[in-house]
Amino acid sequence: xxxxxxxxxxxxxxxxxxxxxxxxxxxxxxxxxxxxxxxxxxxxxxxxxxxxxxxxxxxxxxxxxxxxxxxxxxxxxxxxxxxxxxxxxxxxxxxxxxxxxxxxxxxxxxxxxxxxxxxxxxxxxxxxxxxxxxxxxxxxxxxxxxxxxxxxxxxxxxxxxxxxxxxxxxxxxxxxxxxxxxxxxxxxxxxxxxxxxxxxxxxxxxxxxxxxxxxxxxxxxxxxxxxxxxxxxxxxxxxxxxxxxxxxxxx
Length: 251
Known about the structure:
This protein has 251 residues and is of the alpha/beta class. It contains 11 helices and 10 strands.
């Protein structure tokens, strides 16, 4: 069964987004690359993957208007990403793919590969890319990595809430979200044994993710990205320069 897809395009409180500010726009989803707004690239990639039902979570009026123009359902953004995912899950149900509006390089093939590579028994799956794959695809790229015994990993902003049980993962998402750059704290939540394994460099990310899922009664699985570019999103103006160059070469 092909999932629905939820695109997160909410605005975080606080300082203006640096990419939107650099381009003089209210939201980075509106920034143009190769003649199309960033959000349109994400929508097209999901449609290329064969996903028919798309919803955009946003609170910026221009982004909401663009989403409707692109034929997407719209959902008001909540206080944070995890709350917005919960609102999306309440509307779309399982299975539901989650991505972000700044995933400018997203390709339909990556989405299909992710769905194909997700284990049958998974309730929740997360796509991550190995450092080697990222550096091969984009030499010189500077990313934030989770360092575990089975490699150094970077998130790809692609999540699959595959079954109704996945709803239990959304609340835990808030905790992981807060500690995403401090993996030792994630390990500590799993018990002293896991923390010791992490400190000794023996803890595998796949095992930590599976244990985290087991604690809330579901099966959470790591899926390795086939293309390292899947981990490249647009967080900074320099990322926008890179994304524009990559899309120009791709076209």
